[in-house]
Each structure stands twice: as C-alpha cells, then as structure tokens.
Amino acid sequence: MRFRLKRAAAAAVGLVVLAGVAACGGSGDTPDYGPYSGKPSTPDFDQRPSKARGILAESLRLGERIMYATDIDPDIRMGRGGGVFANYLGLDDSVISGPEVRAAKSHDPLAAFGALAANQSYADYTAGKPQKFLAMSLIEFPDDAAASAAAADMDRADFTANADNAPVAVDAFPSAISHWRPGIPTLGSVMAYKSLVIRVYVEALDPDLGKLVDMVTRSYRRQIDLLANYTPTSPVDLPKLQLDPDKLLSRTVLTEDPTPAAMKFAVWGTHAFSALLGKPAEDAKTNADRGLTAVAISFNKRLYKLRDSTAAKSYAKFLDEDPSGPAYAPINGVSGLSDVSCRQRSKPGTDSVEARRFRCIITRGEYVAMVYSNTDTDVRQLAGAQYSVMGATA
Fold first, then answer.
1. Is 328 a residue whose pLDDT tops 70?
2. With bands split at pLDDT 50, 70 and 90, how would you rate the model's confidence at 75?
3. Those residues with Cβ within 8 angstroms of residue 31's Cβ, 6 or more apart along the chain or in another chain
4. How far, in Å, are 71, 174, 280 from residue 286 at the CA level?
5. Which residues of 199-226 are buried (b: 16+ CB within 10 A; e: fewer)?
6. Neighbour count for residue 294 (Cβ, 10 Å)
7. How many other CB atoms are found less than 10 A from the CB of residue 1?
8. C-alpha 24, offset from chain centre
9. How far apart are CA 149 and CA 152, in angstroms?
C-alpha cells in the first residue's frame, strides 16, 4: 500500500533523516515499481496565479531570514518547532497566541514564519520548571501602515487576555510594544518594522526584568540585521510567486494531489529547514558544510539537492548512519541498484501520526532522496521508481 506522511509542524524535526534510494528489481531486468510511475511528473501548480501558493512561498522566503536563538544565548540550542503559520485564511496559532492571530487577521497578513527554541528538548522538559526559551516570529503585511496597526492590535489582544499583565518599555526600540506579568520570568514584545511585524517571546530562569528586556533588545537587533536585504513581494505580485522554480518536486514520485503545503508539498531553503531541526544552528552548519542547497518535501518522500555528486554520496552516508535520529536496522535494498540503501525501524515510533517502519535512501547525481512506507515490498517499489525519476529528469 502507499504510505502517506501526515505530521504537525512542531514534528518537523524528523525531516533531517534523508538517504539514498534505488530502483526495485523484479523478474529478469524489468524493475518492479508496483503502483508507482518511474517517469517524472509534470504538475502545473506553479503555473497558475495563486494567492495561497504565494503566501506559502513568501513565508518560506521569510524563513530564510529567521533568527536562530543561539545568536542571543548559546544555551538556547534545542529546536522546539515552528515553521510557516500563514495561509489564505490568515494565520494559525501554532506559533503565536490565539488572541494575536485573531487581531492580525483583519490586517491581511501575507506571510509568516516562526522558530521556537529552548535550552532543553521537549523530551527533557518538565512542565512548570524554569527554562530558557525564545520564540521569534516574522509576519508580513501589505504595507507599513498595516504592519503598525497589526502590531498595536496584537499586543492589545494579548495584553488584555490576562489581568496581571503590565506594560514594559524596551528603551533601545521605542516603537516596540511589550508586556509581562510581574514575578513571572517571561516577556512578550511586538514591533512593526517596515511592512513586517517582528514578534519576540522570551523566557528566563528567573523573573529578572532587566535580563528579559536585554534578551528582547538583542533579539530585535539581530533579527533586523538579518532582514537588512529582504525585499517583501508586493501584494499584486504575490500570486505569481513560484514555489519550485527549479522543478525539484518534479524529481520526486508523485503519490498524492500536488497541492502546495509547507510540510507536505513544498521546497525549503536550508536556513528555514534547519530552523525546525533538533539543534538549528548546529544542524544548519552541518548542512552547509556538507553542501546541502535545498530540500523538497513531497508527502512520504524527501529530496535533498547537494552542490555536486560527491557531496551527495557523502550526505547520503551521513543521513543513513545519523545516530541522532530513530534507530533503523539495515535490510535488503533494491536488486541491481547499489545506490539504494534500505532500513527497517528497530522499534515502533511515537514521533509521527503514522508509523514509518521502512525507509530507503537513494543517491543519484547531485540528489539524495529518502522514501518511507509501512511495508518492505512497497518501500522498495517506491525506491525503484524514485531512482528512475531522478535519472529521467537529470
């Protein structure tokens, strides 16, 4: 059967595991692709004007500018999720609070990306215990006036949600609107920056307001530096933005409806992609050092583009043997394809909605792909088709 991957954005950490796949051998020299096609797909999702697609593409552009929390405090190194939280309906509450989402909606948000990090992973965190935490969010609006109005409304909505909130000044940024609950070691702040709203939420180990304000101040400075050369797409041009101008998604086996969606069918830059991994800054450096240039997510498949074929072979080996991911034991690959490596998960996983019992990693040219399935026969058939598609479109 075909395996369909469905995961929340905060679980995006699992995307790091990618590897080389090979075509499946059948009887004689005829490859066994099962229900899959070994020919490249030609979806036209990027050809028609689409505001929904444009919002996604613009959000991923913002993600390439998002600040990593380690820029502020090296202890805040563990990724806690985030990602795209804008769509054609407005924003969702996966990164910012519900009141802020509702307040921003009337100002027509055009893109949004957030990154959450802490000094410990979810697995190690105990609710109620002190922690260091930083959430950075970028929200794009049609113009500067809309951003300013949205920032004011967002703060007002969040401020009035709790009677204990008190306003806080961030002297280095007079236009920032901030508040905290005295005695609680957290501080939230929003600020309009051109046509964007920068939203920062920090948590410290103790309720020292001076330290919290300093964290927010340094976060604004760093984030503004990263936005220095960013040019927002005009609202009229947003529907024309392409999600996949390099046709990376056409190099994957098409298994479901090719409707753009951040965690199902999209192409990510390496900075935004790394922001959602287990250790964003460290993973970003690893990916850069190994020559990763882009990641295409296509349902139960991932396609990594490397700088050249040598880097691809090295990256496939790295992903296949990565000790930080779930434990997988080697199994037979695809007959006749040495560039495919397959594995079976050593024990059932609880880190995704559907179990990913089998995976294959495929290497071809400057590309590495990883495919998943719940059965060994299906994963080999999918791997074989994927290997063929990668060659047909090379």
1. yes
2. very high
3. 23, 24, 25, 38, 336, 384, 388
4. 17, 38, 10
5. bbbbbbeebeeeebbbbbbbbbebbbeb
6. 16
7. 10
8. 31
9. 5
Q: Which token pair is 340?
A: 């495919």
Strands 367-373 and 186-193: unpaired
Contacts of 12 (CB under 8 A, 6+ apart): 81, 83, 263, 276, 277
Closest CA to 197 of 243, 247, 237, 145: 145
Q: Where do the H-state alpha helices sit in the chain?
A: 51-63, 98-105, 144-159, 209-226, 270-275, 280-289, 309-320, 376-392
Residue pointed to by tokens 């806080």: 168
pLDDT digits (tens, 9 = 90+) for 30-54: 679 999 999 998 889 999 999 999 9
Q: What is the pLDDT of residues 191-200, one digit of tens each?
A: 999 999 999 9
Output the pTM of the full model.
0.89
* Cα 299 from Cα 6, distance rounded (Å): 8
Q: Name the pLDDT band for 15 (thresholds 50, 70, 90).
A: very low
What DSSP string runs through 239-302? GG--S-TT--GGGS---S----BTTTEEEE-HHHHHHTSSSHHHHHHHHHHTTEEEEEEESSEE
Pick from 206, 204, 159: nearest CA to 178? 159
Task: Copy the structure tokens of residue 211.
Answer: 């330290």
- Strand partners of residue 177: 190
Cβ pair 175, 147 in contact under 8 A: no
> Residues 153, 145: contact at Cβ < 8 Å?
no
Give the tokens for residue 281: 């800054």
d(CA 9, CA 291): 25
Task: DSSP for 164-187, please give it.
Answer: T-EEE--TT-TT-EEEE-TTSSEE
